[in-house]
Structures are given as structure tokens and as C-alpha cells.
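Lab notebook: predicted structure, single chain.

Context: the supervisor wants predicted structures on file for every construct in the current expression panel, including those that have not yet been purified. This is the next one on the list. No modifications to the sequence; it matches the entry in the shared construct table.
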Amino acid sequence: MWNRFAFDGWQGHYRRTERWFERLLRVTDPRQNTPMDEQIDFALVFFQSAYHLRDYLERENVANKQQLDELMAPAPALRACRDLCNGAKHRKITQPSVDPEPWILRSYDPPNWKLVVKVGGMYDLVPLAGDCMRAWRQFLADHNLDPASLSPPQAALAAALRERDLIDPGM
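Prediction complete. Output recorded below exactly as produced.
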């Protein structure tokens, strides 16, 4: 029997990260009038999910540490993502990628408040999150990894169900 995370695989985690990104876009839309603390909550969950995709890919032997390091090195958004993730989890960062003390701040951009990130410099949070997703999408495309595909446990279950004529053969 597989636990949920093994069953979903990196593909499921990637799709979950995409959903957190979509939620972040919704709550940061000024027309939604979402309280700033909730916007920050969604931002932190997104950055944690986005950074941990690296762990899924490495632990499932889909990508190796060198490939992932090569992805991170030229991608300021992913390095900032790592520091935001680790800062939210550990409070103090001992080995920063960019900044040992990243912050998410409120900034007034008339007529609205928005979130900005201080991580080695100041960045608007939403475009930074978008840059993270673009970097992951490009990495997956460059390595011929399809996030819509089934994880190995899902594929095995689907094959077993097809064998028993319990699901449509086209699935």
C-alpha cells in the first residue's frame, strides 16, 4: 500500500503547487479584498510547495541534485523561494541562497496595498511567484517530464484495474 504522497508522486505535488499558485493569484487580486495576513499565508504555502518540488523530483530519481542545482543557480526567483520556504519553516536561515532574513512586507501602491518580498533586494511578490512557476515549467519541459502523467503507483493501479476490466481501457 502507498501513502498519499508516494501515490501522487512528483506529478501530484507539481499540480498541487500549480493550484497554490492559482489561489495566490486570486487572493492577491485587489478586487478580492482579501486580508493581508491571509495573502501572506497563501504566499508562504505557495513558496514552500514550490521549493519542495525539488525534493520530490530528487527523491523519486526523476532529476539528480546536479540538475536541480543547475536549475537553481541562475534562477533568482527559485533561490528567493528557497529562502522564503526555509525562513517560514525554521525561522532562522543558516545557509541562505540569497538572504538570511527574507521578509514579506506590505507596500502601498495607490490605490492598493500589495505584497513585496525583501530577499537580497525588493521584489513584487506575485511576479516573483510567477517567475518560480515559469522556471519549474521550463525545467520539466527541458527534461521531458509531463506533470499530467501518472506516477508509477497510479500507473500500476490503472493497469491492474484495466486488467480486471474495472476501468475504461483508454484510461
